[in-house]
Design a protein that fits this description.
This protein is mainly β and about 160 residues long. The chain has helices spanning about 5-15, 80-85, 155, and strands at about 15-20, 30, 35-40, 45, 45-50, 55-65, 70-75, 85-90, 90, 95-105, 110-115, 120-125. The longest helix has 9 residues, at about 5-15.
Length: about 160
């Protein structure tokens, strides 16, 4: 079940979602604020131009610290879908503490320029039913700065 704006406001008040702006709160989502764009080589930029087929990683200003009964999903804003972007993001599990990260790809036939002042994605929160025996404690725990492949570099290096 998705959480409403009043429930998201409670999450903000209790420190589950930090570094927020009140005007970013929607009926069942929170509009994420872009902090930077990143390359696979871990370079950071405030502005990026994506040619058709190009991707960039995005870090947000906001940080999540999910309790045992909440998961979070990153969704692309409707206006960005219509523009030709697609988004890939993890499901953030209960127990995850991190800055929010995702990847956007230009699926259109035109160049798309993005800057940190542009809204791209939104965050929705969902309740988790039942007891979580093992909250998230993975390679990307406590990731506040973009780490690229994190602890998976040795596993995926030959595939890139």
């Amino acid at each position: 079940m998705l959480l409403s704006d009043s429930k998201i406001r409670e999450l903000i008040s209790s420190g589950v979602l930090t570094e927020t702006r009140s005007e970013n709160l929607g009926p069942v989502s929170y509009d994420l604020t872009t902090r930077a764009f990143h390359t696979r080589e871990r370079q950071s930029f405030e502005k990026v131009t994506l040619s058709p087929g190009d991707s960039t990683y995005v870090s947000t200003v906001e940080v999540i610290k999910l309790p045992r009964d909440i998961a979070a999903r990153v969704l692309l804003r409707n206006s960005r879908i219509r523009q030709g972007l697609s988004l890939d993001a993890p499901l953030y599990f209960p127990g995850h503490h991190t800055r929010v990260f995702f990847r956007v790809t230009n699926m259109s036939s035109d160049q798309i320029t993005l800057s940190t002042s542009d809204g791209i994605a939104q965050l929705v929160f969902e309740t988790v039913e039942g007891n979580i025996e093992h909250p998230y404690k993975g390679s990307f725990s406590d990731e506040l700065d973009y780490r690229g492949l994190g602890g998976y570099k040795d596993i995926y290096a030959n595939e890139i």
